[in-house]
Design brief:
The protein has 364 residues and is an all-alpha fold. Helices cover 71% and strands 0% of the residues. The protein has 20 helices and no strands. Helix 10 runs antiparallel to helix 11 and helix 16 (271-283) packs parallel to helix 18 (305-317). The relative contact order is 0.08.
Length: 364
């Protein structure tokens, strides 16, 4: 039989595992302190693994994953049994495509939790991501032996069987996953659609009308997984923040704002949460509210490029060319002396456009 071709745009979306903001990673003290607090904590107690771990989580929330990984590595150096730090490293390395290091950390975690269906599934994903479908099967088989109703493992095993040219077995796994979802009281529409897409590769006549827009489909699946996470940890700010970002991607602004505000209420003072809230207000046309939030973000941390870019965009819409050019210029200064991923060419282009629009501004 011919192997089933997977839609490339769905490969990442359907490799079901724990999200990067996993339950294992949560820390009870994390929501109460800021980045500066944890930086001070590790200086005062350099041998405290938990302080390094919480500093890593804070870096991760603020988008500084390289620094986050360094903190997690330090936590493990102090306490090699710190499973939460190890899990975060496994997930980060997987995100970066360093599957060898990711696999190492998953294997270490399984030594402590050999009966974890989630970890076994995540380890199987490492093989799937490298298109090593045959070697993924034992991990997924074991996950389902331990937890027979674990939907992610059924979906991932279905993908593996489809690629290995066994569409009948793949279909059985997809249908088993759908039946588990059908019996669940939770709303799993995004996951069900993903299953339908892959089953559609095997039986297009049956499922051809269920294929949704690829980007929406990926976001919908992520929403369902994060909802499952939040059901177990409703006060986890990382889950709320990531769910808000996903709703923002779908332009569901009210839902995005609700989760950003929840995250801000649990952990006030995050520059990234503040910027996200401002972005929602900006898109909703609530310009003064957006302005208030972005200016507050500058007080929290005056060294974040995105805040200046946001203020430049906002003042442009408000017709204040002087301030628009000022803040975009400040963004350029920050980027020029840093290793940030923001493109200086994009900022230059924005400045050029603004100067054409406001030629009277002295800074031009």
């Amino acid at each position: 039989m011919l192997a089933v071709k997977l839609p490339k745009y769905l490969l990442i979306a359907v490799l079901f595992g724990a999200t990067i903001f996993c339950g294992m990673a949560a820390s009870s003290s994390f929501v109460d302190l800021s980045l500066e607090d944890y930086q001070n904590a590790v200086q005062m107690e350099p041998g405290d693994a938990e302080a390094h771990y919480n500093l890593g989580l804070t870096y991760h929330l603020e988008g500084s994953d390289k620094e986050a990984a360094q903190s997690f590595e330090k936590a493990l150096e102090i306490n090699p049994r710190h499973q939460s730090a190890r899990f975060m490293l496994a997930e980060l390395y997987k995100t970066w495509g360093d599957f060898k290091k990711s696999f190492f950390h998953y294997k270490q975690l399984l030594e402590y939790q050999p009966e974890s269906a989630s970890l076994l599934n995540d380890t199987g994903i490492i093989y799937l991501a490298q298109k090593n479908f045959l070697d993924a099967l034992p991990w997924l088989d074991k996950a389902l032996k331990i937890q027979p109703d674990f939907v992610p493992a059924y979906v991932n095993r279905g993908i593996a069987y489809g690629e290995l040219g066994e569409p009948e077995q793949a279909m059985l796994d997809f249908l088993a996953a759908k039946e588990i979802l059908r019996q669940s009281k939770k709303n799993n529409s995004g996951v069900a659609k993903l299953i339908a897409v892959y089953a559609g590769d095997l039986n297009p006549d049956k499922f051809k009308n269920q294929i949704a827009d690829p980007a929406d489909l990926e976001a919908a699946s992520k929403i369902e997984l994060l909802k499952w996470d939040l059901a177990g940890q409703p006060r986890n700010i990382l889950f709320h923040f990531e769910l808000g970002l996903t709703y923002l991607k779908l332009n569901q602004l009210d839902k995005a704002l609700a989760h950003f505000l929840k995250a801000d209420g649990l952990y006030g003072g995050s520059i990234w949460v503040q910027n996200a809230i401002g972005e929602v207000y900006f898109r909703k046309g609530m310009m003064q509210d957006a302005l208030t939030v972005f200016l507050e973000s500058l007080k929290i941390n005056p060294n974040v490029v995105e805040t200046y870019i946001n203020l430049g965009r906002l003042y442009d819409l408000l017709g204040d060319g002087v301030k628009a050019i000022h803040y975009m210029g400040e963004a350029k200064k920050l980027v020029e002396g840093s290793a940030r991923m923001v493109s200086i060419a994009d900022i230059d282009s924005s400045l050029e456009t603004l100067c054409k629009k406001y030629p009277e501004v002295e800074a031009c």
